[in-house]
Amino acid sequence: MSRNPDLFFYVCIAKHTTILAEFNSKDADLGDLAKKCLDRTPSYHSIFSHTVHGQTYMFFILDPFVYFGIFDELLEKPECLSFLMSIKDEFTSMIDECSSGTMKQRLHSPNSHCFQGELSPVFQHLMGSYSEFNITFSPIGLKGDHRESLEYVRRNNSSLEGLKMKKRFFGEANKDELEEEKLDALSDDDITVSSGRRLQKAKYIWKKQVMVVLSIDFIVCVVFFLIWLWVCRGFQCIAS
Which domains does the chain possess? Predict the structure, then answer.
């Protein structure tokens, strides 16, 4: 199976954040995007990928070099990784075979795109329909580092699936706990509201009872006052 070049949007080799050579088959803006990605190369990773908006962004990091590519999401991640490793092999072979002091100087203190001339044919060659560069999903026939890297990806994928299952399980458990907490919170709120209503009702009853008692006291006082007026025939008791 030959590679479909339409699935390869952008590839570059960089030393730290300096791009040594690049291949851009889709959009000139991808070069600027790649620079931003290289500025944020993930630390403590040898392989890192992220798929979003139909594109897969992959880093293959062998400090101080970074092999970075932007691919169509239809291209499987092992294929993306294998392609970046093929570029690494070609670049390493080119450096090892060249004893030129100028080459070593460029590599030691690189300028932007200082290896573009040498690596442009490499990019084109690797994306051509050559059977020796075809990708298989089996590690058989790959070099040792390729085999180990692909096995690493597969192990990571398996671990990722297990992690997703754990997240689903614990996510559901946490969801149930959260719902229980919400129910408990609602119950507490209901108790608080109910207690508040009972308190308001008690205050209302207390006020009503106080008014009744005061009314009775007032009536009793009025009755005694009338009796006193009747006994004393008005205010004669006071006058005498």
Answer: 5-135 (3.30.450.50)
